[in-house]
Amino acid sequence: MLVLVQFTASIAVIASTLLMAAQLKYVSAKALGFDKNQRIVITLHGQDVIDQAPVIGNELKRNPHVLGVTTATQLMGGEFPTNVMLIETSTGTMESSSMVHTSVENNFVEVLGLELIAGRSLAQRFLTDVGPSFVVNEALVRQLGWNDAIGKRMTLAGNQGRVVGVVKDFHFLSLHNRITPFALYAYFDTQQEIPAAQRPLAMRQMVVHVAGEKIADTLAFIAEQFRGFDPIHTFEYEFLDDRLNKLYVSEQRLLRLTALFAGICIFIACLGLFGLAASTTEQRTREIGIRKVLGASAAQIILLLAQGSLVLVLIGAVIGSALAYVGITQWLASFAYRAAINPLYFLGAALLALAVAYTTVALQCLRTALANPVESLRYE
Question: What are phi and psi of 254, to 5 degrees?
């Protein structure tokens, strides 16, 4: 019973580890709807530095390895504001709706690689445009039932503008959350609207798209430029893909702990099985000698001695797989987007446990199976 419990726990934990690793691999590989690679995120501190963002961008773009520069109030992987906005419905009336949004620089869509599926981006502003321009995602279009989103009115903080473009849905939060309606709009606040006491506290995120080669040299160039524009604050940066990976730090930590626990479980199970095999071999020494005299090979004897333990492992595999399925289903429920539970992971965990169990028993029984049968028959 102890061996059965030990291998049940081992197989359950091994299968859970494999399934958790598969989910985190799925999270890492899933297309997010924007380009996260080779994007450096830099924090701008203070309104005085923020006001110089266009000049900073122009200076950075002098480097041929800087492919694009943009800014935003909030970026993917961070917390976005949610406010009540007045939005034109499909019937033409204006209704209030709570929606996630962020203000961005005009070229944000291009630098982050968002896929524009209708209309134009914020970078293309016409003389006929009045008020702020909005670019919305597909989720908002579906929610409001718009047949044509272009030209629909939206009002935020008393500023009314119109929708000029629609981008393909992108994951602005972690994969724990479903994609909800989202709006991008160009900055329409001015420095006069920001109280003097709050100017040093203002922050904004700058995204620099860099080439894949000479990244270290490019980073050194960017840091040098920033020291000239902001000598007070430390140059802070991170890669966008690293920023997004931090959204799953707790899951990665849990995976490492589970893998460690799986190793401990299988080790303890092997110790128990090794002792059980030693006891069984000791009790059946004469039987082993008689079987060898009658022509049984060492491999046949080892299999004979191991089959009882292997049956325990198979029973443990069934119970452990069921426990792992229940546990991993509850864990995956926290993800709005998740990988399918592949039965092969349960089979892999069971086969691994069987291989370890057979090897453990074989190592214990090998000396007796290879011994001279005459010595075994003299056993008292």
Answer: -65, -40
Q: Which amino acid makes up residue 321?
A: S
Integer-rounded Cα radius of gyration of the chain: 32
* Token reading at 220: 């050194």
Q: Extract the tokens encoding 273.
A: 């099985």
DSSP state, 200? G
The token pair at 71 is 């800014």
Six-digit token string for 332: 């995956």
Give buried/exposed letters for 259-286 (b at 16+ CB in 10 A, else e). Answer: bebbeebbeebbebbeebbeebbeebbe
Give burial (CB, 10 Å; 0-12/13-18/19+) of 253: exposed
Report which residue type is found at 268: I
Render pLDDT for 242-258 as a digit per residue (tens, 0 to 9): 999 999 999 999 999 99
Distances (CA, A) of 116 to 72, 110, 119, 143, 237: 18, 9, 8, 18, 28
Q: Which residues touch 259 (CB under 8 Å, ≥6 apart)? A: 17
User: In the chain, count of helices (H) and strands (E)?
Assistant: 12, 11
Looking at residue 283, its amino acid is Q
> Rounded to two decimals, what is the model's pTM?
0.81
pLDDT(16) > 80: yes
Q: How far apart are CA 83 and CA 73, in angstroms?
A: 15
Please give the distance of CA 366 from its chain centroid, rounded to a whole number.
46
The DSSP letter of residue 29 is: H
